Amino acid sequence: IEAVQNHTPDVIICDEIGRPEEVEAIQTVKERGVRCIASAHGNLRGLVANKQLNGLIGGVETVTVGDGKAYKDQNKFGGQFSKVRQQRAGMPVFDVVIELRPKELNEWTIIFGVEKAVDNILSGKSYLAQVRRRHSETGLASLELVDA
User: For labelling, which of 39, 68, 75, 125 has a CA lying 20 to 30 Å from the CA of 5?
Assistant: First the structure.
């Protein structure tokens, strides 16, 4: 945060965000208008479930909805009747998430619109993502749209 205050950077790069203090710092940096590039272990669904790190995607809060909304959602999505929901608490730090997997050097998943993807995850729906692949010998690339 001192670097932002003293040097007014356009971009900050942070490797391996893993503690709540680091999440809070990167949120503060983003709120000050600095573009953030960072890494954290796991994938988007894992990040949503991780209580220490889900502040990166806006945080998750539990809310209680009224009977009318609960019945409407049950009719729309099915499942058991429940007035308790999880929802995103704020804006994500990142607009885009790129998922890399160990030992998969030629394939990665890109999630544009992190806000909507997180909302979909929390309501039990899939979200759109791009899987990009590069042929290891020819270098040719392909792109596939998937429901994740």
Answer: 39
| Phi and psi based region of residue 32 (left: phi greater than 0; alpha: psi -120 to 50; beta: remaining) | alpha
Q: Is the dihedral of CA 98, 60, 21, 52 positive or negative?
A: negative
Nearest alpha-carbon partner for 32 in 1, 68, 70 = 1
CA 4 from centroid of its chain's CA atoms: 23
Half-sphere exposure at residue 41, Cβ-oriented, CA atoms within 13 angstroms: 4
pTM of the model: 0.86
CB 17 within 8 A of CB 40: yes
User: CB–CB of 4/14 below 8 Å?
Assistant: no
Measure the CA–CA gap between 86 and 136, rounded to whole angstroms: 41
User: How far is Cα 31 from Cα 134, in angstroms, rounded to an integer?
Assistant: 35
CA 48 to the chain's CA centroid: 7
Structure tokens at 101: 């997997």
pLDDT of residue 20: 94
pLDDT at 39 over 90: yes
